[in-house]
Amino acid sequence: MSTLVFLEHHEGELQKDSLGVLAKAAQLGGDVSALIAGSGVEGLAAQAGRFGAAKVYVADDPALEAPLPQPRVDVAADLVRRHGFETVLFGATVLTADVAAGLAARLDAGLNWDLVDLAQEDGKLVGKRPALDDTVYVDVGWKGEPRLALIRTGTFEPVESPAEPEVERVDVQLEDFSTLAKMIEQAHEESEGPSIEDADVIVAGGRGLGGPDNFALVEELAKALGGAVAATRAVVDAGWYPYSTQVGQTGKTVAPRLYIAVGISGAIQHKVGMQGSNVIVAINKDPNAPIFEYADLGVVGDLHEIIPKLTELVRQRKAA
Amino acid sequence: MKIAVCAKAVPEQARRIDPETKRLDRSGEQTLNPFDANAVEEGLRLKGDAADAEVVLFSLGPERSLDALRKALAMGADRVVLVTDEAAAGSDLVASSYALARVLEREQAELVLFGQQANDSDGAVMWAAVADRLRRPLISQVAELTVSDGAVRGKRQTEFGYDVIEAPLPAVVAVSDAINEPRYPSLKGIMGAKKKPQETVSLSDLGVEGERAGESGSRTEVYALGEPPPRGETQRVEDDGSGAEKIVEFLLERKAL
Ligand SMILES: Cc1cc2nc3c(=O)[nH]c(=O)nc-3n(C[C@H](O)[C@H](O)[C@H](O)COP(=O)(O)OP(=O)(O)OC[C@H]3O[C@@H](n4cnc5c(N)ncnc54)[C@H](O)[C@@H]3O)c2cc1C
Ligand SMILES: Nc1ncnc2c1ncn2[C@@H]1O[C@H](COP(=O)(O)O)[C@@H](O)[C@H]1O
Which domains does chain B have, with CATH numbers? Predict the structure, then answer.
């Protein structure tokens, strides 16, 4: 089996999930190569070797400076066509999901997403995919090659297996439409706000709160419990709460002793950031909300009724 | 300006995969994919009062999808084009994006909008495949969108912060669910929706060959269905006024308070 792993990088570091996928590919065996696309990225090749890549293809071009998907589809398609990789793997991120799907269309290749495992079974590559809010696990496969897969955030840990990789620079030839989208601005500094990563207790608010002012409800509860306040992407993007408090795929990963989800539907992209919490309590008025599938205690009801009472009861307990 | 919105009808409830066909069971009530209501809303906002602008819905799915898609017409979209064909059942990303691209090519909208994800497949990838087939620039996960001077600009969140990306029209944009609050259809909207144009087209109308559609056009397959790994016990209670007390009891039991 020949496998190509697409490696994402940020500020001169290879992204951890990408390296985890690379380590998994190395464990599955066969010829494992990696692709690094960017500008001024040649130095990253050695890092890739440490995590299992026997060969590293480097596409280094100013046109690849911004982390935009379409030029990366061109580079990957060219590489797959020339070398006939049987499998192409991606650690799922905002960028790689678009690269993988663009590549699937370009090569008419099968893409399976959100995989939490990969295995060789009877000579076939099989992916494990939790579906329908993780209520069913599906064994998925590919009808031909190349086989493309996006691996769910945080699935595989990087494992060092030191090697001196062979490095090859590849030619970068881009389609006319691939460079039309331009990065105008990247605001990558953390906005200020309390750190949620070390908190023992987290009370998280979602769009069910109805507006930024109602975050006072979760703040009060968090204060009573001696915990921190977190938020979903929906409310962060809406400007209700700072990005630094966001939990999930594009936010923080937390694992407090207690996580209380208030007015949060519990989308997979949120779940991947908090499923390691010890005890999860959810309050949601929709009995079909996915969060109830994985909350230890789910209360179906109106948060406006429940949260103020709960805060009061916790205060009384603590005072007693 | 012609604005296309790609939208999908999804099962309303009780979502299950049919163990026989290993496909999603689409027999129950269908509803407009909630994430696509954000794309419809954004299309309507961009159209504004412009008399020469049009918001057209494009969908691939069974004929009954029309009932669910009509909600978008009730919100204010102008018409629906549904690609529907027995031979398209079981299409994966490769096959669906091909059919969608073919129907979109026919209409040449300046802006093609997508929702954040189909809540039955949770792929959040369709737009990238369609954009590649249309050979158009793409901006995904957009939480703030502006169109001016023949270009579209989107702000979006990534793992590392915020990006602002710009692309000339014609372009493909996928919006996030934070971009707006979809309006509720008015009674007048609901009444009027039935009379708006609802066109169905078959794969052959679009010149999509049989081997590019449905299972024969798909490159992925499902081998088996299984149970998720157990995650301890989950309890669910209805709040009858004692929800807060129940939470406290539970926390004490779990020594989490
Ligand atoms: C690539 C990608 C990355 C993403 N990254 C993240 C991420 O890092 N973090 C993240 O959180 N999301 C992320 N998302 C978005 C995610 O898919 C969901 O859209 C988001 O988590 C929804 O946020 P929410 O639960 O606040 O809002 P909603 O889904 O709108 O849920 C609100 C809930 O509140 C309930 N509710 C409403 N009123 C009340 C009331 N009065 N009382 C009780 N309950 C009420 C509703 O029933 C509903 O379930 C990502 C998506 C994609 C595609
Ligand atoms: N069958 C379909 N018909 C029309 N649009 C679709 C279809 N499937 C997906 N889409 C669009 O693509 C988006 C992402 O879908 P997915 O990648 O399947 O999660 C959805 O929000 C819709 O806008």
Answer: 2-212 (3.40.50.620)
